[in-house]
């Protein structure tokens, strides 16, 4: 090692021992705010082609409750009214025979099977009312029926358009869908 390198190493070692900041690695160039500016400068050419989210229009966003609705909820709860979801949940979880007895004003032993079934129907309606709050609706399946031929759309580079246009779709079933000719025959 040359004398100049050795002296630089010795100076750094002495600075480390003394706890001087000169002994520590200097910060990288373009760190901090400068680095963010460099990054945004690199992105500028791409911003013209970027898809931006639509700007929020005037008024309340869809699906958010308005002030009047929120105030009415607070008023009703302050006056002691039950939350409708809580009421429906109480109906769903109640014993059908006990609910029928309470609704009919008679002892539990006198509740008939038909009365319990009527209460069970009410419980089902209450459960249906609560379903959207617990489970989302499953997507609707779409089944295409019919024997009409469907178009085939080819996207991308097509080298030999004649070979593509000569293909005939005979069936949509699991059997072969090409005619007897090979693609290589021209």
Please explain how this structure is put together.
The structure is a single chain. This protein is an all-alpha fold. It is 48% helix and 0% strand. It has seven helices and no strands. Helix 4 packs across helix 6 and helix 5 packs across helix 6. The protein is flat, with a radius of gyration of 38 Å. The model has no long low-confidence stretch (mean pLDDT 75).
What are the SSEs and their pairings?
Elements: H1 3-18, H2 33-47, H3 67-78, H4 84-93, H5 96-104, H6 113-134, H7 161-165
Structural class: mainly alpha
The overall pLDDT average reads 75
How much of the sequence lies in strands comes to under 5%
Rg? 38 Å
* Uncertain stretches: none
Inertia-based shape = flat
Q: Main beta sheet, described?
A: none
Strand segment tally = 0
Relative helix content: 40-55%
Summarize this entry quickly.
The chain has 7 helices and no strands. With 186 residues, it is mostly helical.
Q: Could you list some keywords that capture this structure?
A:
single chain, 186 residues, mainly alpha, flat
